[in-house]
Design goal:
The termini are close together. The chain contains two helices and 16 strands. Helix content is 17%, strand content 54%. The strands form two sheets. Strands 1, 5, 6, 7, 9, 10, 14 and 15 form an eight-stranded antiparallel beta sheet that branches. The protein has one domain. It has 271 residues and is of the alpha+beta class.
């Protein structure tokens, strides 16, 4: 009986070593990025009179497991970074990839607010790579006008911009999601619902997917507005979520079973 238990223990030990090696060789790696660059943003009026003034808000935030950071600025939010790989990133709107260890990076910048002359430009990125735990990043740029006035006779307001979006997720042992959006709302003061909401520009991907258009995307829309005062909100946003899967529970059950069998063997040997 002792020899039989010894052989079983040896076999289980060998399986544990193989399982341990396999888990180590297949360590989790979960990466996601959401990047967008807006150029040539234009807002024009074909008739009537419009007065326009605005303020801007740029913000970003990053978290990785229990760590978090965030920043904001009217035009250029300082980079939000957790982890050594992104330590030198600042307005670095390129895909960095799943290299150099775990990190989470978010950054946002409004480059030009001259939307009336077609020069509006902004960039934002959210990016994270983890081998354990979770990561989250978001970055957004917002232009708000509290003094958008349309004179008597009304007006038709048109919007257009070029977008260069890129989304990617690379998952081995976990899950990831990457999303981006750009919204435009005009709401007349006193009304509960927007007078105009642009056709949504929104893209999202799940694990092991990529969105990479060959050329920039041109988006345009228009709205006929009655005379009055409106609130204008233009927001671009990037967001990623990543999660690495822990060691499967079956492995811990296997280990506890091995320990239990050792105890049985000891009791039988003593008996």
């Amino acid at each position: 009986m002792v020899d039989t238990l010894s052989r079983r223990l040896a076999a289980l030990a060998a399986l544990a070593a193989v399982a341990g090696f396999s888990l180590q060789a297949q360590a989790a790696s979960v990466y996601a990025v959401s990047l967008n660059e807006i150029t040539n943003f234009s807002m024009s009026v074909d008739s009537g009179s419009v007065s326009f003034s605005s303020f801007t808000f740029s913000n970003d935030s990053a978290s990785m497991s229990s760590l978090g950071t965030a920043s904001s600025d009217p035009l250029d939010a300082p980079a939000a970074c957790i982890g050594a790989p992104c330590a030198g990133y600042d307005n670095d709107f390129v895909v960095h990839g799943a290299v150099g260890g775990d990190y989470t990076y978010a950054d946002a910048q409004i480059i030009n607010t001259d939307v009336l002359n077609g020069n509006g430009a902004a960039s934002a990125i959210a990016e994270s790579h983890v081998s354990s735990g979770t990561g989250f990043a978001q970055a957004s740029n917002t232009l708000i006008s509290t003094a958008f006035s349309v004179g008597s006779g009304g007006a038709t307001v048109s919007f257009s911009f070029d977008a260069a979006p890129y989304l990617q997720t690379l998952v081995s042992g976990g899950s990831a999601a990457s999303n981006l959006s750009l919204s435009i709302f005009l709401t007349k003061y006193g009304d509960s619902a927007p007078s105009y909401a642009a056709t949504p520009f929104s893209i999202g991907i799940a694990s092991n997917e990529e969105y990479n258009p060959a050329t920039p995307i041109t988006v345009s829309d228009s709205a006929a507005l009655a005379a009055g005062d409106y609130a204008l909100n233009i927001t671009m946003s990037q967001m990623v979520n990543v999660s690495a899967v822990p060691v499967p529970a079956a492995v811990w059950l296997f280990a506890s079973g091995l320990v239990g069998l050792v105890g049985v063997a000891r009791r039988r040997v003593r008996g």
